Amino acid sequence: MDDDSNSASVMPSTLRRVTVAGFGPVGRFVTEQLRAAGVEVTIIDLNPATIATQSKLGIKAVLGDVTDPKVLMEAGIEQADALILAVPNEEAAVRACSEARRLAPKLFIAARTNFVSRGLLATKAGADHVTIEELVTAQAMRDAVVRHFFEDLAGEK
Fold it and tell me: Environment class of residue 150 by beta-carbon count within 10 Å: exposed (0-12), middle (13-18) or buried (19+)?
């Protein structure tokens, strides 16, 4: 579990093309950060309105299910450096890991899951990195408590 929110400013020059599947809040944030760093992003989403809007903004956007090999190929998965599975459907994320790994064996795959058990399945299916939301939430809550008490202690001195 990585938490490097400033990574866009130190993006390696070898990262040129990324496919982001799922354009909800997670996918939008990742896309904005990558594009700000000069990375070419292709979006895959099931919402036709999202695809139309992003296409009008000049972003390559593919309508379809990320588990479909035809959709992955249309998105250029074989030329991509990374695939970010920001889809909220854990079963689809796991299936997409497997399919993307089959089509592009050297591709870096980052997936999101809600639970550790699904994260293990995503890793087994081919994900290189899995962000597990229940662990990220636990870490954020712990950090908030530590910051609160640290600031209180620092203020008392």
Answer: exposed
| Structure tokens that stand for 36 in this block | 């700000």
pLDDT per residue as tens digits for the range 34-83: 999 999 999 999 999 999 999 999 999 999 999 999 999 999 999 999 99
DSSP category for residue 104: -
Pairing of strands 40-45, 82-85: unpaired
Residues recorded for the chain = 157
pLDDT tens profile 76-125 = 999 999 999 999 999 999 999 999 999 999 999 999 999 999 999 999 99
Q: How far apart are alpha carbons 23 and 41 in whole angstroms?
A: 12
C-alpha pair distances (Å), 92 with each of 22, 25, 99, 139, 141: 11, 17, 10, 26, 28
Q: Which residues pair with 41 in a beta bridge?
A: 18
- Give the C-alpha separation, 87 to 23, whole Å: 8
- Give the C-alpha separation, 22 to 49, whole Å: 13
